[in-house]
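User: I'm writing a tutorial on reading structure tokens. Could you give me a worked example: one chain, its sequence, then its tokens, then a sentence or two explaining what the tokens reveal?
Assistant: Sure. Here is the example chain.
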Amino acid sequence: MTKVPKTLPPLTDGTGQDVVLTMSEWGNQYHECRIRQHGLVDAILEAYE
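And here are its predicted structure tokens:
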């Protein structure tokens, strides 16, 4: 298992390209964490069935 990152990549210069790339990275991190969290919830729920 991997812990969720403590910090997200910062916006560096505020340009449109920077914002798009940073928001894309944040989105990727969210989805990776979501997949792991859902897997953990499923495993816990199966253990109680």
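What the tokens reveal: The chain is about 65% helix and 0% strand. Residues 21-49 form one domain.
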